[in-house]
Amino acid sequence: MARMVSLQQPTTQSHPSFSLLTSSLSDFNGARLQSQLQFKRKLGMQNRGALQVSASSSSNNILIMGGTRFIGIFLSRLLVKEGHQVTLFTRGKAPIAQQLPGESDQDFADFSSKILHLKGDRKDSDFVKTSLAAKGFDVVYDINGREAVEVEPIIEALPNLEQFIYCSSAGVYLKSDLLPHCEVDAVDPKSRHKGKLETESYLESTGVNWTSIRPVYIYGPLNYNPVEEWFFHRLKAGRPIPIPNSGIQMTQLGHVKDLAKAFITVLGNDKASKEVFNISGEKYVTFDGLARACAKAGGFPEPEIIHYNPKEYDFGKKKAFPFRDQHFFASIDKAKHVLGWKPEFDLVEGLTDSYELDFGRGTFRKEADFSTDDIILGKSLVTA
Amino acid sequence: MAAALSSSLTSASSVLFSSSNYPSLPSFSPSQRLCFSHSALSSSYSVSPALFTFPSPRLSATAAVSFSVRAATAAGEKKKVLIVNTNSGGHSIIGFYFAKELLGSGHNVTILTVGEEGSDKMKKPPFNRFSEIVSAGGRTVWGDPPEIGKVLAGETFDVVLDNNGKDLDAVRPVADWAKETGVKQFLFISSAGIYLPTEEPPHVEGDAVKGSAGHVGVEKYMAETFSNWASFRPQYMIGSGNNKDCEEWFFDRIVRNRPVPIPGSGMQLTNISHAKDLSSMLTLAVEKPEAASGNIFNSVSERAVTLDGMAKLCAKAAGLPVEIVHYDPKAIGVDAKKAFPFRNMVQKRSDRATTKPLFLSYEHASEMWIFNVCCCCCCCCCSTSMLSHEQRRKFWDGREPQTCLRI
Description:
The complex is a heterodimer of chains A (about 375) and B (about 400).
Chain A: H1 31-42, E1 61-65, H2 71-81, E2 85-90, H3 105-114, E3 116-119, H4 125-135, E4 139-142, H5 148-157, E5 163-167, E6 178-179, H6 194-206, E7 210-215, E8 217-219, H7 228-236, E9 241-244, E10 250-251, E11 253-255, H8 256-265, E12 275-279, E13 285-286, H9 287-298, E14 305-308, H10 333-339, H11 347-357, H12 371-383
Chain B: H1 2-8, H2 39-45, E1 80-85, H3 92-104, E2 108-114, H4 131-135, E3 139-143, H5 148-151, E4 159-163, H6 168-180, E5 185-189, H7 214-225, E6 229-234, E7 236-238, H8 246-255, E8 260-263, E9 269-270, E10 272-274, H9 275-287, H10 289-292, E11 295-299, E12 304-306, H11 307-318, E13 324-327, H12 329-332, H13 336-339, H14 346-350
Parallel strand pairs in B: 1-2, 1-4, 2-3, 4-5, 5-6, 6-11, 7-10, 8-13
Antiparallel strand pairs in B: 9-12
Helix pairs in contact in B: 3-9, 6-7, 8-11
């Protein structure tokens, strides 16, 4: 029986609901989990198959701050599959469990019967402190924290916390002419992500066993940041893709499912203790290359790319392009070598996964808005 | 661990463009964008900071190892090494550094330079510094590869490095002679320019290469002929004694307070390695032949740098400010190949061909080097993109080698 679910988003646009597959497990639940389990096997855990994850003595009482929007949706499933008790701390604006595209009814039923909810506003420190203290979690995954002050009550509430795993951002790195960014590189205390930096510092100062993950651009089905969606809208509309400046700016995308696996890999892992890890895709890609990769993923013809000088335009408050106009990529070698983690998805594969499970089914988070494109194209038509 | 790291790392001058922005955050904002010699390896192999991979803050730092002073290798065995060296171009410098490093490690070295000792080419660096090889105990001879059997009649070597040929025609005489005379290990300086262009850098060993590239033929032949062989694919090489003085182009302008004109956006990424780092890699291959055997190694640093970044690095090395001016060569009617020392990628972009950013990264083994930037040698065609070096880990027994980035 198909179930209709719609994702609520704070942006209040109504989105088409997505209908659900009744097919068997998506890659995410199947083969791709295997490699992670093999890793766990080294730690002495039994592995009885891709779906049955042993609930060994290392089963934890885990709290995820957030968990209903993007990363957490995938991460929480992996954790539940591994036999942990998982609670999501959210305001309850979005349903705690929503069936994923490609997720079987049975898997979803299993997940939704096990996932727990702690309803509250994390900005209410007193509530956070008392409610967490009452539950006594072993491990906290902070997926949606932005400021250090939001983390304080969590730390204070859980003096016996075994591990605090934080979703930071590669956006903390100071812009550089020398790339890729490595974990040891200089960070920018003035960046838009300085709250993440301050959180990392705060964690370090508390003496808690923390791990920080710095993703670059995350993509995949259910992405609420219009990364691939931006390109898909234009490709679908048959429109040219306006890319600022040369188009050789180099960036890097990491699939959300690979990121979720990285979050699992650091759980209870001594090698992750008080360490920072960049997590993203294996390869980098230019803006022009990304446009072409999205086209391949969606089965579109090779797009027409228009380069323009953003300084020649006034877009008002609108963003004409979803990426920072600079090189931005990080080395994932530390995670690969220290944790034995590596991304499963290559770029076109990952974009195809996103397309097939999301945009290609008619779902997306933001309606297409070509107004800035038209400003650019209008001018190019005039000057051509 | 990370805290220990940041306090033990040395060299304030290693800070590149972030020195003024240092936040006082613990642990993960050390003042150095760098990596450092692996301490355990340094003691046993005395490697200078190599251009290897993946900085890992969990390894502790050591001071840079001086290039000229070297403890005997823990591997023990001394080898008799022949370097067949080109007599011009960006790769010339490789043989020079390799010879010196091997000699420093106690190996026996002969360097056969193509051509004649009296030729005008020998008046240029590094050849005009060959006395340094001789005084370190090395032997310098001249000749042509097809005549190698006569030039080195009666001699046998354990290891041969061909740092000359760009195709099988040039290398075969050397390879065949080496095989006949019982050379155990054959090494070859190939080129990173042979990778097929990609939209998704970095190139790793194993990525598709151009079938037509001469170097590919050599690599295949080596694999067929020798049981122990290795190929090294560098991108741009720099180092004092460079035959092609491309960094001089930047210095000439910087020291005269002239703007540095860079074609295009200046964002083009490229990769530069110091010849000393490549020579460390080669020396390790000699000292750990089993680990090297059968492998192709990208010989580049783990960071790419933009062309603008290169100009800034030159300025920093010179201790002077720099003014960069970007221009469109086509619009001005200038041939960028003549106007700029690196192959200009900008023009490719407007072709339907894929953009091929050229990656260049800068590594340096000690402070305030006046470095030479190698103009891309002719084999390095414009299609290279950023490289990574997965296989070098084999050398390091599972520990990541570290690289030093200092000015």
